[in-house]
Amino acid sequence: MPSPHRTREIAKYESRHTLIKTVTSTGATLVESDTGKLIVVDTSGGDTTITLPAAKVGLTFTIMVWKTAATKNLLINAPSSANYYKGGLVWLDTDDTGTHLFSSAPNGSSHYQLDIDDPELGSTITAITDGTYWYLQGTIMDPANAPTWA
């Protein structure tokens, strides 16, 4: 058993490393112990659904698309309609001439499902909860469609 000093040293060392959890088209329900992990998503096998865990103060997830296939969606759902979304995303229309940036936001009072149509590599969302609501921020790169909220 390491000494208390060594235990703190190990914890400090480990806190500098980001753990990664891979999610494929089978989807995933995140759990409390996944907080702080980088959730990398591969949508090449089909539409992929991620369900966030029950809201608890301080839970934080970063979700990044690292592999994609055309016409496959990424869906991110809060665990219940009582844990709706606040915040918003920046949407970059990648197939238009020039650069086109738009904002996309939930209504802040009932939306708890996010559907990202055909996200491209590098699309990233951070989800943080205050114990009741999920706050989202990030950048979605999509060639044709803005994210939709329900």
Describe the overall structure.
This protein is mostly beta strands and 150 residues long. It has a single domain, classed as Jelly Rolls (Sandwich). 7% of the residues lie in helices and 42% in strands. The protein has one helix and 13 strands; from the N terminus they run H-E-E-E-E-E-E-E-E-E-E-E-E-E. The protein has one helix at 4-14, and strands at 20-23, 28-29, 38-42, 48-51, 60-67, 73-77, 85-87, 89-93, 100-104, 113-117, 124-129, 134-142, 148-149. Strands 1, 3, 5, 7, 8, 9, 11 and 12 form an eight-stranded mixed sheet that branches. A five-stranded mixed sheet has the order 2-4-6-10-13, with no helix packed on it. The radius of gyration is 17 Å and the shape is globular. The model has no long low-confidence stretch (mean pLDDT 87).
